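tool_call: predict_structure(chain=1)
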Amino acid sequence: MKAWFKEGEHWVWFSAASVSISVVLVLGLLSMISVRGLVHFWPHEVYDYQLKTDDGQFEQIVGELHDTKLKEFKNQQTGVIEKIPQFLMKVGNRDIYGIDFRWINTTDIIGRQDRLDDDVTVIERFEYGNVYGHLQAIIQNGEIIAEQEQVLPMMQQLVSASQKLYQQINRIEKVTLGGINYQLEQLRLDQKKFEAEGRLNAEVQATLDQQRAELNAQFKEQQSILTGLYSEFNQLGEVTLRLAGGQVIHVPFKSIVRFWLPNNMTMTDKLGFFFNSMGHFLLGDPREANTEGGVFPAIVGTINMVILMAIFVTPMGVIAAVYMSEYAKEGMVLKIVRISINNLAGVPSIVFGIFGLGFFVYIIGGSIDEMFYEYALPSPTFGTPALLWASLTMALLTLPVVIVSTQEGLSRIPTALREGGLALGATQSETIMKIVLPMSMPAIMTGLILAVARAAGEVAPLMLVGVVKLAPELPIDFNAPFIHLDRKFMHLGFHIYDVGFQSPNVEASQPLVYATSLLLVVIIVSLNLGAITIRNRLREKYKALDN
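tool_result:
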């Protein structure tokens, strides 16, 4: 045993055990996020419970069973503390019950159905949560047009027509009218610019008025189309459902996102529902204070910010590393700079956010507004948190990682290659550009991978320099210049923070937090895999020279 310790074998086993534990913890964390996130998209069966209330009355609870737990209660007769199971039920109908989740004690249950009858229907609405009940009738213009067996097939047709109308309305409001409003705003700013520069004469004014009149005519034309679509939307009517306890609710078709019969679904139906739910989540807009709906704006904002950050940080980090490794002379100043860069990596991220807000937003952005957008003041253009400043702040945050990784790659290039390039008549800059940097690309890509992974998960600095809870417009659209660096944006990391810690409906937000966390991990892994693929190809390309 002493010989075993002297040879240092115990350190090998200790390292292997530590790595194994770390891998197990990471895999366990990913498994938990994946399971709880994917369950959010799977259709849940609906249960029916009969409860006895404190006043001796009876109550019927219908909804999805989401969770169970043991709660301690003190028996008033014996004084013994007992653990009683509780069920978390999603009862929906927030406009009627006030809350859509409810804990019930199993001791209060006097009757239970493991499954309701097959025709129980779940309706997902744009507002007020789900509806759980039985279809009764379809009403249009005050008249019943379908009852009993006729309701389901007609409802499928009307919901399909409602979805098509909603998509048309949404496209006109967001794309067409949004583009017209954007052009009108640009004309207003152009007029203010001409006034500030003293170039607003009769000819220019006439041109602006003509363009404004054309846009207003287009706006009115689209509004008339929109009015017709809304009229069709309202004429679809409503469906009535019988809820638990016999209460009847009227649900307009214009407020229905989709509906399904959870207790009457085959495995194929459930798989179709699963992938359809994922599509709604990935491509839909958030609803109900981000606790429902999709995360498409957050996906777009996250990817745009990460790509811009990579574009900013890569040249800055590479240039700084090349200067310190190839041009700067060794000495006390260079040592201090290197120590400062290493220490910069340990600065709390919120400090970078404060710096970005003070320097980039107020100083740089304010100066840009005064020099180029004075006509738009006091409304700021770049002197406000936006995508550009968030990307630059994250570039500054991840800059030490890229510099250190690039320096490590440069130090691995043999000196003989540099001397050979110089001996063949190349200048130092040509040697660096054509020999040293290409061979250092794997290390540069490694630094970029680490930078992307950190930037995509940071939240604190982004809250100060551009991220918002709900962005009215995407940072990228079909209006020139297509990428709007002066707009605020949504971010998956902030979306997780907002839904998980700021939402008043905690139970409803939990599955969405796991689903969004899983999506963020997938995006980071995808970006990293792309960078790793490029790095490996570059490593294979220059392997012969490296040897």
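agent: The chain has three domains: 46-117, 136-284, 296-491. Proceeding to next step.
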